[in-house]
Amino acid sequence: MTPPASFYFHVPFCTGRCAYCAFHSGPPPTPETLSAYLDSLARAFDAFSPAPLPCATLYFGGGTPGLLGPDGFRRWHSLFIGPRLIPQPGFEWSVELHPAGVTLPLLQTLRELGATRVSIGVQALHDPTLLALNRRHTADDARRAIALARDHFTNTGIDLIAGLPGITPRRWQATLGEIIRWDLSHISAYTLSIEPGTPLARAPAPPSDGLDEMALASRTFAAAGLTRYETSNFALPGRECRHNLAYWQGLDYLGLGPGAASRLGLRRLTPREETLTPLDDALERTLTRLRTARGFSPARAARRHPLLTPLLPAWTRLLHRFRAHGLLTEPSPGTFAPTPRGHEVADALIRELLAAAETAPGRI
Q1: Which residues pair with 118 in a beta bridge?
Q2: Whether the predicted pLDDT of 90 surpasses 90
Q3: pTM metric for this prediction
């Protein structure tokens, strides 16, 4: 198996749990728990590979990665960059940051160590909504964090949630207008996912599905020059997150940390390990491409994964039907990419292609 070139580090520390969050997280670290966490990352890597590995992309997610602080990031860097990971030409290192935790020393340290992009979890610019979500920052905190980050990183992005309770259409439009004025290089905009067991799942009234809000966001971002390169992600040309593209293009990646996932050959670790069949592996690595602007070519997929060849007739019929309904375009012969409406139902399209794979003649 070729070693992965993309690495994800899950930072399991947080100052509190947001109302929609179902991720693995715990309280902010003490010096002792921070040291133990970093040592555990090193041990986990060594169990996977006794030698350093080339690294094309690196991503810190959470939890709240900024809680590592300047000293924690310096210690991590001494453990990994060189001894365990060897950055390759064009190396991309992304760090997620909470608005309230963006400080000048932290940004200076990340830049000195070689981080190349930051993504700040703005989510909304309406203080009552942020309070109801237990976000632990204000709209002004977000504005300050963005201004400070852009002074240190030309590649600064944000996360934004569409369809939040309390965000009226007029307020959403104002939010989008302000965000455009920030002149960001990347925006991740998601419809709200209601996870079982979270406080938001117990709310008396379900929130909007966010589709109208996402449609307006897509038009607004496009007018500002940001391309929707994946269903939930918009970027200026050349500023796409290559780490996340690795997921959608079906490449292997190694995740380290208590809530991290990995994809290694036929193995999926979430952190529970399961071994996929060769066909299920090929399907999983292939169909996520339908969420991307680059699109999905059944013929190329079959060349990469010959097991998919028997599915081509059924898939081709389905894809042309989706195109006839305005859900897909065909930017080049035999390659299909989502339209704005197609992005709204991308997961449903993928489910139909998977269902066709279950029933197609000659399925292996």
Answers
A1: 95, 156
A2: yes
A3: 0.93
